């Protein structure tokens, strides 16, 4: 069975609680459940995590090497700022899908650049929670998991 790690960055713990007009009413827990269901149907095992700390995110990326077959990353604000995360992702040794609930390219200009995009195999943005399901489908395809 293929194993996928899903990493969520800062403030995503507030999903469904604050700014529903931007990020919708789905909570992080709802999103996790959605991912579990989608992964189950593709015979994939997932590990779903969130942190507000850049260093923790980087440690999780480093530790994933050799354990997981693929990674889905919504690095939230660190997407646009973190060279360190970029460096860690570059040597993760597995397919990486970058996902965003909103479409950062259609928002403020400071969100237009992504350090994650430069090392991601595929980017999904602006599709809300369904983007995470699509990311799992894309990874299943890339990893050759049962579809
Ligand atoms: O659209 C996305 O998924 C983002 O990664 C979300 C980040 C933002 O910095 C990126 O540009 C795009 C922000 C996550 C903050 O999440 C919140 C959720 C509820 C209330 C406040 C923030």
What is the rounded Rg? 14 Å
Give the proportion of residues in helices. 25-40%
Uncertain segments:
none
Give the strand order of the largest sheet, numbering strands 1, 2, ... along the chain. 2-1-3-4-5
CATH topology type: Rossmann fold
- Kindly report the average pLDDT value: 96
- CATH-scheme architecture: 3-Layer(aba) Sandwich
Q: CA-to-CA gap between the ends? A: 12 Å
Overall description:
With 147 residues, the chain is α/β, with parallel strands linked by helices. The chain has a single domain (2-145), classed as Dehydroquinase, class II (Rossmann fold), CATH 3.40.50. It has five helices and five strands. A five-stranded parallel beta sheet has the order 2-1-3-4-5, with helices on both faces. Helix 2 (28-41) packs parallel to helix 5 and helix 3 packs parallel to helix 4 (83-90). The longest helix is centred in the N-terminal third of the chain and has 14 residues, at 28-41.
